[in-house]
């Protein structure tokens, strides 16, 4: 017993000494280096890293004693199916990001299979997850291979911006929590998540994940179909650099020409900009807009595609990624469903999809049924498809029917624009938000006017569907982006009113003051705009206002000269 006491006393003494040494080391490191800055986990860590490693389905006992699998993943639509699979049933899983969500809960795909493949008993199970990339879709595919699938439909290509999934995310989370200790940082270093791989690395990882999906499905004897997703190139405003480079003279001069309606001059200046800076995605995008305005369609499409390829990481697919899907399907023996080709036929090679797509990567809800039929038809007609899905004599792709925007879709459009604005850094105007808000106003001017009639109306429009959303409480960025979207559309009175509201929400906001000054200038008060912009340019965050200040000062001086002559 005395031996145990001595041993316990020795352990406690060693522990106390270790703690004292670590405490002394911590104090010394604080004195030498200052307090360490704790690492921050990404805001989506729970969703993208922890949840992605948890089971997608969980087993429960049914009323008759059978095993029933039900959805366990937060953010997924509810599904349930029995194991083992009923005799004579062909089971189809749909995996993908938010574009796959409409095909959960049976319904559209079940109806399409029943209509186009009569006699085949098909059970469609959706595993769509908003924001998922190919790496997380691969994790889902590994799981669903255990549930006796006959066909897996993969809708992949969007959202290739996450870091790779972590094998042990809980340990990684503990390391982040310990990162506030200087001793820990000195010993461990900086185990950061790889959230920003290069475009080439993202494309390589995407293709590697697709090929691994095809290999796993082939080894299991399961058919797999890869869908080529459409991209709305004209709505794909570059977002990797979220704001326009107004602080670069070459781009600014081209932008001024565009705003003043000189499309031909703007095209020439944007072309000079892309020649000087070939990697400027914004310059390529706005050159495409100017060329489209001049009816130079082929050249316009080329620069839309270049802007999309340069703009990485992004949440929507692009032409380069579409080529990867086609190549991976061809070389791995997967079935190919080329949705992009069908959408392109209804637009001008993907550049004018405004009536087909509600944003850069999502087709309008009214086409959900048509896309389900496109998937079934594409699978049935492919020469590599096996029974019970093979129907080589089935008629070619059905046409995309319908059009227009319903109230739910319009709300989604407005909400997307506002959410992008809500997350904007304090000194930035997010182009994607401005673009979406412009589209929301064009789609339904009366509904848009009602939604922005007052701060209360805007909060009500948001909270009607999203009562807990933080955007209802942080309104300066919302009104600043609304003001800028209205200014660019020439709605100057409404733009000034929205800018005034933004300033009232946060008088010191650089962004609110910037949009208010730009709106004043366009409303015919160049001297006021110049004064406000010159004051802003003296702020540490005021780089984007300097060229604007010079522009409006020159306008103010030129306006005085005729008066002086009289």
Short overview:
By secondary structure, this protein is α/β, with parallel strands linked by helices.
Task: Give an account of the 3D structure.
With 566 residues, the protein is of the alpha/beta class. 53% of the residues lie in helices and 7% in strands. The protein has 23 helices and eight strands. β4, α3 and β5 (122-128) form a beta-alpha-beta unit. α22 (526-537) packs antiparallel against α23. The longest helix is centred in the N-terminal third of the chain and has 32 residues, at 2-33. It starts with a helix and ends with a helix.
- Quick one: overall form? globular
Tell me about the largest β-sheet. Answer: 5 strands, parallel
Examine the coordinates and then state which fold CATH places here, giving the name of the CATH topology of the largest domain. Answer: Rossmann fold
Structural class: alpha/beta
Query: Roughly how much helix do the residues carry, as a percent range?
Result: 40-55%
Individual helix count: 23
Q: Find the count of extended strands (DSSP E, 2+ residues).
A: 8
How many structural domains in the coordinates?
Answer: 3
Compute the average pLDDT. 84
CATH superfamily of the largest domain: SGNH hydrolase
Task: For this entry, give a set of tags.
three-stranded antiparallel sheet; Serine Threonine Protein Phosphatase 5, Tetratricopeptide repeat; five-stranded parallel sheet; 23 helices; Rossmann fold; alpha/beta; 566 residues; 3 domains
């Amino acid at each position: 017993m005395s031996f145990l006491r001595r041993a316990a006393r020795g352990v406690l003494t060693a522990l106390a000494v270790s703690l004292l040494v670590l405490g002394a080391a911590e104090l010394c490191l604080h004195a030498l280096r200052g307090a360490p800055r704790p690492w921050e986990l990404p805001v989506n860590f729970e969703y993208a890293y922890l949840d992605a490693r948890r089971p997608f389905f969980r087993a429960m006992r049914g009323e008759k004693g059978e095993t029933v699998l039900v959805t366990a993943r937060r953010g997924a639509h509810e599904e349930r199916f029995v194991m083992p699979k009923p005799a004579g049933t062909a089971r189809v899983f749909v995996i993908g990001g938010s574009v796959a969500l409409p095909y959960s809960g049976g319904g559209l795909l079940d109806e399409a299979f029943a209509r186009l493949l009569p006699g085949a008993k098909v059970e469609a199970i959706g595993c769509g997850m908003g924001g998922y990339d190919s790496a997380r879709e691969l994790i889902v595919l590994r799981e669903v291979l255990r549930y006796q699938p006959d066909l897996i439909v993969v809708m992949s290509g969007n959202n290739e911006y996450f870091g790779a999934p972590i094998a042990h995310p809980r340990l990684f989370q503990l390391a982040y929590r310990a990162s506030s200790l200087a001793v820990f940082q000195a010993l461990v270093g900086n185990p950061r998540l790889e959230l920003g791989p290069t475009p080439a690395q993202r494309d390589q990882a995407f293709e590697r994940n697709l090929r691994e999906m095809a290999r796993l499905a082939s080894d299991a004897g399961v058919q797999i179909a890869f869908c080529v997703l459409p991209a709305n190139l004209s709505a794909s405003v570059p977002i990797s650099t979220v704001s326009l480079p107004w602080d670069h003279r070459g781009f600014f001069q081209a932008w001024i020409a565009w705003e003043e309606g000189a499309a031909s001059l703007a095209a020439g200046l944007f072309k000079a900009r892309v020649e000087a800076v070939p990697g400027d995605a914004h310059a390529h995008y706005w050159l495409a807009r100017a060329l489209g305005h001049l009816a130079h369609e082929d050249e316009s499409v080329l620069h839309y595609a270049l802007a999309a390829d340069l703009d990485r990481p992004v949440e929507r697919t692009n032409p380069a990624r579409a080529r990867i899907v086609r190549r991976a399907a061809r070389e791995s023996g997967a079935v190919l469903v080329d949705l992009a080709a069908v959408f392109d036929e209804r637009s001008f090679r993907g550049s004018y999809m405004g009536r087909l797509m509600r944003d850069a990567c999502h087709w309008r809800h009214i086409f959900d049924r048509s896309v389900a039929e496109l998937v079934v038809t594409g699978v049935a007609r492919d020469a590599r498809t096996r029974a019970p899905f093979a129907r080589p004599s089935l008629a070619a792709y059905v046409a995309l029917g319908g059009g227009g925007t319903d109230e739910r879709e319009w709300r989604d459009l407005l909400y997307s624009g506002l959410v992008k604005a809500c997350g904007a850094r304090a000194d930035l105007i997010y182009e994607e938000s401005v673009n979406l808000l412009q589209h929301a106003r064009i789609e339904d001017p009366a509904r848009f006017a009602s939604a922005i009639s007052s701060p209360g109306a805007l909060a009500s429009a948001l909270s009607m569907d999203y009562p807990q959303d933080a955007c209802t409480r942080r309104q300066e960025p919302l009104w600043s982006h609304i003001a800028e979207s209205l200014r660019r559309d020439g709605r100057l009175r409404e733009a000034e009113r929205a800018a005034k509201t933004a300033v009232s929400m946060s008088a010191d906001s650089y962004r609110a003051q910037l949009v208010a000054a730009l709106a004043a200038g366009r409303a015919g008060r160049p001297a006021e705009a110049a004064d406000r912009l010159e004051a802003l340019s003296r702020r540490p965050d005021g780089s984007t206002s300097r060229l604007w200040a010079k522009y409006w000062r020159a306008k103010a001086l030129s306006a005085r000269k005729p008066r002086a002559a009289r």
